[in-house]
Amino acid sequence: MTAIGNFKPAGVAALAAAAALALAACSQSPSGQAETSSSAASASTQAALTAPPSPSAAPNTSATVGAVVEGFPKQLLPLMNGATVVSSSFDKASTPATAALVAKVPAPTAAVVDFYTKALETQGFKAVPGDAVGGVASKDFVRGENETVNLSVVEAAGVSTFTIGANVAAESAK
């Protein structure tokens, strides 16, 4: 039974255990170095604080910063002339295969949208109606029943930063 301001005995014990673990982790040895606890409670607390592996850690997923990742489908998503890659990723094992590219180019938003519209329409993609989401230029393209590409562009001080992502059949990711 609990009354306002009173804890159940199990709750007090759990609170005391948590406080003891926190104090043990923060205590100093006489030499000034932090002591470590080897108790099972400390180990389980550490395990609870460990993050699960990143989804990008999947064996067939590749990602890199500052370059086009190896195996990236450059024919499907060509890099616009003058663009500098910020990051890229590619997962050819997923169904559909996924590819993403973030880059910057000293060009207006309209030039980026025009370049990728032409590049994708040449490959059989059709633009979906709509040119923005909120204040961000955004264009979607579809091909067949389940292949999609999205392009989003933000411009500041004459530099357009764009993200292009594709979900396509594995055989299309070349």
Helicity range: 10-25%
CA-based gyration radius: 26 Å
What profile does the largest beta sheet have? 8 strands, antiparallel
- The CATH topology name of the largest domain reads Jelly Rolls
Order of helices and strands: HHEEEHEEEEE
| Average pLDDT number | 75
Strand content: 25-35%
Assign the CATH architecture of the largest domain.
Sandwich
Structural class label: alpha+beta
Give an account of the 3D structure:
The chain is α+β, with helices and mostly antiparallel strands. It has 2 domains: 9-49, no CATH class; 55-172, Jelly Rolls. 24% of the residues lie in helices and 31% in strands. The protein contains 3 helices and 8 strands, in the order ααβββαβββββ. The protein has helices at residues 9-26, 40-49, 109-122; strands at 61-65, 84-91, 97-105, 126-127, 132-133, 136-143, 147-156, 159-168. Strands 1, 2, 3, 4, 5, 6, 7 and 8 form an 8-stranded antiparallel sheet that branches. The longest helix is centred in the N-terminal third of the chain and has 18 residues, at 9-26. The chain starts with 8 loop residues before the first helix and ends in a 6-residue tail after the last strand. 17% of the residues are buried.
